[in-house]
Specification:
The chain is an alpha/beta fold. Helices cover about 35% and strands about 15% of the residues. The protein has an 8-stranded parallel barrel, surrounded by 7 helices.
């Protein structure tokens, strides 16, 4: 464990380092000067079934919390236009536990990639969820350390951080699920982020999901550096989907994440912002999929401030157009 890391990480740094190098959880610089090499076991690769298809379309999943009907209704909108949905885990928006959510989505006819965070679960509960997800047929789990809980979000709730992301990856691989991992190319130390993704691969990751960046050229540079450092797993790059100021702001609400200001202005001032937002997302996907090593895209964000179903319709249309272009 790195002395001074409030997330009790051993294999840092996390993706929440502020642009100025400050820790997201307490005043002061990140406790890690550089990427810590993976020192645990090297699990055997377990390629996911999605690797045998064309470009993967992974879509962010958002619905009303603790609402079985809305899970099914939202899944019905997204399922025909994507290969899988990415179920996030947010500090201020609890929902059904992962195994139950995975079961509901499978029943609704969509493949879930479930996010497991170390923030609220110790290693025993994480293993329970991993084994539960595997038992119901969930193939892929996004393994994250987790963002720190805001001081004003449930101050009565403790933060566990019994494991960090790479150690959760190793645990997931040992259980028999396909571990996916995030990486933020724009988080300090930016020059070391490709190497950090390679270390997650060494821990057992089978696929990576990158956070969005302002310009696709930044992903091209990141991928060239990562592949040079030994990255061989496929990468899913994020496509920012927004059609109004609220959905644009959500995509810039985490450390290190920002949008292309020119594209944002073009979409938000368009006569038809929805059509402009869809067109911008498809254009970004086209550029990202042309980069060597990028196997698919994550249709990312709320897409609309008009409700989850409207947002799902917009993301589904983006997914459909990406698939059409890939044919």
């Amino acid at each position: 464990m790195e002395a001074g890391c409030p997330k009790r990480m051993e294999f840092g740094p996390c993706g929440g380092v502020r642009p100025d190098g400050q820790c997201e959880m307490r005043p002061g610089a990140c406790a890690f000067d550089d990427v810590v090499p993976w020192a645990g076991p090297a699990p055997a690769r377990r390629p996911g079934r999605w690797q045998n298809s064309g470009p993967v379309v992974l879509t962010d999943f958002s619905c009303a919390p603790f609402d079985r009907g809305d899970v099914a209704a939202t899944a019905a909108i997204l399922a025909p236009a994507c290969d899988a949905v990415l179920v996030g885990e947010h500090q201020n928006k609890p929902d059904f536990p992962p195994t139950l959510m995975g079961s509901l989505l499978l029943d609704a006819g969509v493949a879930p990639w479930i996010t497991l965070s170390c923030r609220d679960r110790n290693r025993v509960v994480l293993e329970q969820e991993l084994r539960g997800l595997r038992s119901i047929g969930v193939d892929t789990v996004l393994c994250v350390t987790g963002d720190g809980r805001g001081y004003d979000v449930r101050p009565d709730v403790t933060q566990t951080f019994d494991l960090d992301g790479p150690r959760l990856v190793s645990l997931a691989a040992s259980v028999g699920v396909t571990p996916a991992v995030p990486e933020t190319p724009t988080a300090p130390p930016v020059h070391a982020r490709p190497a950090r993704l390679v270390e997650k691969q060494r821990a057992g990751a089978d696929v990576a999901v990158l956070n969005h960046v302002p310009y696709p050229a930044m992903i091209a540079d990141f991928m060239a550096a990562a592949r040079s450092a030994g990255l061989s797993i496929p990468v899913i790059a994020a496509v920012a989907v927004f059609t109004d100021s609220v959905s644009a702001a959500v995509l810039q609400g985490l450390p290190g994440l920002e949008l292309d200001h020119a594209v944002t202005e073009q979409v938000l001032t368009a006569t038809d912002p929805v059509a402009a937002g869809i067109a911008a997302a498809v254009a970004e996907a086209r550029e990202l999929l042309s980069i060597e090593g990028v196997a698919g895209v994550n249709v990312s964000g709320l897409a609309s401030a008009s409700g989850a179903h409207i947002g799902a319709e917009i993301k589904a249309e983006v997914g459909r157009r990406i698939r059409q272009e890939a044919q």
